[in-house]
């Protein structure tokens, strides 16, 4: 008897449903989110034919959590079904629009019964890649948190402290620069910045790590802080300075988290056998390479062709066609983390690879806008990465961006 299993995941409990090949409900159970609940699930599966040789496939609406991790570790095929797809399948089975946790578990089981070949099971990545994925995603989240903290601080400083914004307007890192954060820590208001002595300011930027042109930078900052600026009332300015110190503490914590997680991610990534191939690509440093590996994994059966990988990353266009209407646009449903890393990769490759730069210029000349040309470059290099990882060979500029073959000369008349 062919049995499929559906699990409706909830925070503290899970509803389990098993259906056979004729869509009959043959088993149901509510389990807790603990070791005892997992053992109850294994017993239910075993009662209906589950074995190491023929494990029952399982559908669930998430790819994360202890339950999913334990199911994958036991060798079972686990399918993470998008909740939007589950909602469409639910309408297929009932027109009353009723909903319950048990009913959703039955719908998930029926999805595998009827359309298992249309869904991809979770990849069989090695534990090293899973650990890299945890750190790489946490580091990427920390970068986004740092950006949000920076933007909040900058928005607040615009209300009362234009001098600090002017002082670091030409710096690439703006308020993320160590010198800016060091000065804000000792002078969170314009009044305190104007009263800074040369020795105190010099000591602050030295503490921040500056090693060159310290005296010139100190004089420049003193000149900026001692200009005439618009000011808030003194009491209000002091209160806003206290708020700045609180926002600065959040920014410092985010910066520290970024640095710590980046170091741990790079250390783990360099232990993986794919690291050498990935970092051989122009524009892929150790950290961005770790993010790429974290999202594509090392299960080479996951993406049969480069086209599958491109669709997953969102770099391949999608066509919408109906009657005489036909429109080609970029994909909105994609792995957003991989797509974000791809933009950084393509941009960095412009200066690291002459072939990538020529390809980008060609796309721009043919009418692509900036982001479209970058996305097309990422699409091409992603296909090259798929080939190199499959064939176990490093990137070769001469092969990746080989000049087009010239057409044979026509025979003389």
Characterise the protein shown here.
The protein has 18 helices and seven strands. It is 57% helix and 9% strand. The strands form two sheets. The protein has a five-stranded mixed sheet. The chain has a two-stranded antiparallel sheet with strand order 6-7. The longest helix is centred in the middle third of the chain and has 36 residues. It starts with a strand and ends in a 13-residue tail after the last helix. The chain is of the alpha/beta class. The protein has three domains: 119 residues, Nucleotidyltransferase, domain 5; 136 residues; 126 residues, no CATH class. The C terminus is likely disordered.
Helix share bin: 55-70%
Q: If helices are DSSP runs of H or I spanning 4 or more residues, what is the number of helices?
A: 18
> Residue ranges: pLDDT <50 for 5 or more in a row?
409-413
Number of domains: 3
| Category by helix and strand content | alpha/beta
Quaternary state of the chains: single chain
The shape, in one word, is globular
Question: Which helices and strands appear, and what pairs or packs with what?
Answer:
Layout (H helix, E strand, L loop, with lengths): L3 E6 L3 E7 L5 E8 L2 H13 L10 E3 L5 H8 L4 E3 L2 H11 L7 H15 L11 H31 L4 H6 L10 H9 L3 H5 L3 H10 L6 H12 L8 H36 L5 H5 L6 H11 L9 H8 L4 E5 L2 E5 L6 H17 L1 H12 L4 H22 L5 H4 L13
Parallel strand pairs: 1-4, 4-5
Antiparallel strand pairs: 1-2, 2-3, 6-7
Helix pairs in contact: 3-4, 5-11, 5-13, 7-9, 9-10, 11-13, 13-15, 14-17, 15-16, 15-17, 16-17
């Amino acid at each position: 008897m062919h049995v499929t299993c559906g699990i409706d995941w909830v925070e503290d409990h899970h509803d389990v449903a098993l259906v056979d090949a004729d869509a009959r409900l043959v088993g149901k159970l509510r389990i807790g989110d603990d070791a005892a609940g997992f053992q109850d699930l294994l017993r239910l599966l075993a009662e209906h034919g589950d074995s190491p040789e023929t494990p029952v496939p399982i559908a669930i609406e998430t790819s994360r959590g202890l339950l999913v991790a334990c199911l994958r570790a036991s060798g079972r095929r686990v399918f993470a079904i998008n909740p939007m797809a589950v909602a469409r399948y639910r309408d297929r089975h009932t027109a009353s629009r009723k909903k319950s946790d048990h009913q959703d578990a039955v719908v998930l089981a029926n999805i595998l019964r009827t359309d298992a070949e249309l869904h991809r099971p979770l990849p069989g990545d090695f534990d090293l890649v899973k650990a890299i994925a945890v750190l790489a995603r946490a580091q990427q989240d920390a970068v986004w948190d740092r950006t949000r903290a920076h933007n909040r601080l900058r928005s607040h400083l615009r209300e009362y402290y234009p001098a600090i914004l002017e002082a670091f307007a030409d710096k690439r890192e703006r308020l993320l620069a160590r010198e800016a954060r060091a000065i804000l820590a000792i002078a969170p208001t314009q009044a305190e910045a104007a009263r800074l002595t040369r020795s105190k300011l010099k000591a602050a930027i030295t503490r921040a790590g500056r090693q060159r042109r310290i005296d010139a930078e100190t004089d420049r900052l003193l000149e900026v802080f001692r200009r005439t600026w618009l000011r808030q009332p003194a009491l209000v300015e002091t209160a806003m300075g206290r708020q700045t110190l609180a926002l600065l503490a959040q920014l410092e914590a985010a910066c520290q988290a970024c640095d710590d997680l980046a170091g741990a991610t790079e250390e783990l990534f360099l232990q993986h056998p794919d690291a050498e191939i990935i970092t051989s690509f122009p524009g892929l440093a150790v950290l961005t390479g770790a993010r790429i590996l974290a999202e594509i994994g090392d299960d080479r059966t996951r993406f049969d062709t480069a086209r599958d990988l491109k669709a997953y990353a969102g770099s391949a266009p999608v066509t919408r066609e109906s009657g005489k209407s036909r429109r080609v646009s970029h994909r909105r449903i994609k792995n957003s983390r991989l797509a974000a890393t791809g933009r950084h990769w393509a941009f960095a490759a412009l200066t690291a690879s002459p072939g990538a730069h020529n390809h980008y210029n060609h796309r721009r000349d043919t009418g692509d806008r900036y982001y479209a040309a970058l996305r097309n470059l990422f699409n091409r290099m992603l296909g090259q990465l798929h080939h190199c990882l499959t064939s176990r060979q490093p990137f070769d500029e001469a092969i990746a961006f080989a000049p087009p073959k010239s057409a044979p000369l026509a025979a003389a008349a």
